[in-house]
């Protein structure tokens, strides 16, 4: 039953437009910061979906995001939300609990975090690993993706996490306009976000760009562009 249900949900996600889908065992992220703090109390698994963005979008980027990238960033997040909600509806109709986490929503602007770190959950679901920029890097598309997750208590078979494959590469660190990436290596994950990146430098640059371009989304894209994983 578990195997058939897992295949059914994964196939459905792909039919709806997901390029990648994985199942995370939430026990592996026990203790992670969430908003609210008891967010994971009633869930045991997460369905994580990813949609690739056009590589050409990133090739247009020089030292700041283009308006083309900004538009596709928003559009792909909206598509992820729609797919996530439809999977949520399917699981709810089966009688299980399900809660779609909004794609790329910041709910705490002091810690700059959402309801849960979707990247951490996606890593646990075997979609990729945390790169030196702390972005999720997938074997298929590198970091040129957007991701979203759905918390559930359905008995799905979880996927196995991937090992870190960044090696000695420091392209994201070298290219970062804010000099915010420290370039350290880890097998699983850093001890803290601060150990990997200077969030203050990153956010300051993102806010300056957003104000300059007259938009709300805080994006850059330079470290995504230079990552060798997934480049065509």
UniProtKB/TrEMBL annotation:
Annotated TM spans: none
Domain annotation 4Fe-4S ferredoxin-type: ranges: 153-187
EC top class named in words: oxidoreductase
Gene3D superfamilies on file: 3.30.70.20
Source domain of life: Bacteria
Catalytic activity, EC: 1.1.-.-
Keyword field contains NADP: no
Keywords noted in UniProt: Iron, Iron-sulfur, Metal-binding, Oxidoreductase
InterPro entries from the UniProt entry: 4Fe4S_Fe-S-bd, 4Fe4S_Fe_S_CS
Pfam families named among the record's database cross-references: Fer4_16 (PF13484)
GO molecular function annotation: oxidoreductase activity
Entry-linked PROSITE patterns: 4FE4S_FER_1, 4FE4S_FER_2
Protein name (record): Epoxyqueuosine reductase
